[in-house]
């Protein structure tokens, strides 16, 4: 078991989720159950899966949940790009969020590699 609060990847995933919530607050009401909901759930899923993996009994199980978190990061990336193409999300905000996601993906890959060695 890992000390969750000391995991930098988890902290960064929490920060990303907060930034995503702030970015989607101005989305139109008719997207509340569409893109807004999907984007927010994907962003929360990243940190949630890291947390669940940290509480598991083996490194292999932890890596599995890190893989799920990485899938959620790719899902989030896709949904944010769609939002941008629909003019719901400005380019500068999209680029900032994509940069955070890319950093998380790199950290995730490195962390999985470290756990498996």
Give the overall average pLDDT.
Answer: 94
Q: Low-confidence parts, pLDDT < 50 over ≥5 residues? A: none
Q: Structural class, please?
A: mainly alpha
**Number of helix segments?**
4
Biggest beta-sheet profile: none
Residues in helices, as a percent range: over 70%
**DSSP strand (E) fraction?**
under 5%
Number of strands: 0
Give the overall form.
elongated
Euclidean distance between termini CA atoms: 17 Å
Chain oligomer state: single chain
H/E series, N to C? HHHH
Radius of gyration: 15 Å
Give a written overview of the molecule:
This protein has 117 residues and is mostly helical. Helices cover 77% and strands 0% of the residues. The chain contains four helices and no strands. It has helices spanning 8-24, 35-54, 59-85, 91-116. The chain is elongated.
Task: From the structure above, extract its key features.
4 helices, 77% helix, 117 residues, mainly alpha
In short:
The chain is mainly alpha-helical and 117 residues long.
SSE arrangement:
Blueprint: H1 8-24, H2 35-54, H3 59-85, H4 91-116
Helix pairs in contact: 1-2, 1-4, 2-3, 3-4
């Amino acid at each position: 078991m890992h000390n969750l609060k000391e995991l930098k990847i988890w902290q960064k995933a929490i920060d990303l989720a907060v930034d995503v919530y702030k970015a989607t607050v101005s989305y139109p009401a008719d997207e509340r159950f569409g893109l807004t909901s999907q984007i927010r759930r994907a962003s929360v899923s990243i940190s949630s899966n890291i947390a669940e993996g940290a509480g598991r009994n083996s490194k292999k199980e932890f890596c599995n949940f890190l893989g799920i978190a990485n899938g959620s990061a790719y899902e989030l990336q896709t949904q944010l790009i769609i939002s941008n193409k629909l003019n719901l999300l400005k380019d500068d905000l999209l680029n900032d969020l994509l940069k955070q996601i890319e950093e998380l993906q790199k950290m995730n890959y490195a962390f999985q590699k470290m756990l498996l060695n």
